[in-house]
Amino acid sequence: YLETYEHLVVWAGSLDLVPEESVQRLRQQAARNPDEAEAVLSGARNLRSDLYAALTDPDPARDVLDGLGGAIRAAGADICVDHSRAGGLRLEHDPSALTLPVHAFADAARDLVQAGLAGDVGRCPGTGCGWLFLRNGRSRRWCIMSICGNRAKARRYSERRRATRVTGAASA
Q1: Is 54 exposed, middle or buried (0-12, 13-18, 19+ CB in 10 A)?
Q2: Are 60 and 54 within 8 A, CB to CB?
Q3: Which of 86, 80, 56 is nearest to 68 (CA)?
Q4: Which pLDDT tens digit goes with each residue over 51-89?
Q5: 3-state secondary structure of 85
Q6: Which H/E stretch holds residue 18?
Q7: Which of 15, 19, 23, 68 is the most buried (most CB within 10 A)?
Q8: Which of 55, 88, 94 is nearest to 71 (CA)?
């Protein structure tokens, strides 16, 4: 879903990773610097892939975790000490840099892993989905019940009806 830099910055804005007032400015800046925006987008995709691998493996290999750490560092943000936050670290973001959405995403990813929430991440079993979500209870199975859950229910219902028709036709 991250096909363009514009997708990245709008997504980051919708999650409040980037201030709303920065979204339009970054979109305009990306239009003026398309090569730089493409490089930033590539970094975001790499970070996303490394985070996905680290969160979906129940016991991630050291190289997966190293890859995630490297991707967070490669986001290029400065790390500084902040004693008011759990973990004591935060990333400093340049609000005018095209890398702002990636820095903010790297910061959120690091917080997720440091807070120990990685074990609470579920992977949607929906056909063709694979989205990740934070479980707010162990019974949650779908990323969005009204989409993936309902599709699975409809598919099972259709399969049961088809099986009943085949069984009924065979016995007639």
Answers
A1: buried
A2: yes
A3: 56
A4: 888 787 766 666 666 666 776 666 554 444 343 444 444
A5: coil
A6: none
A7: 68
A8: 55
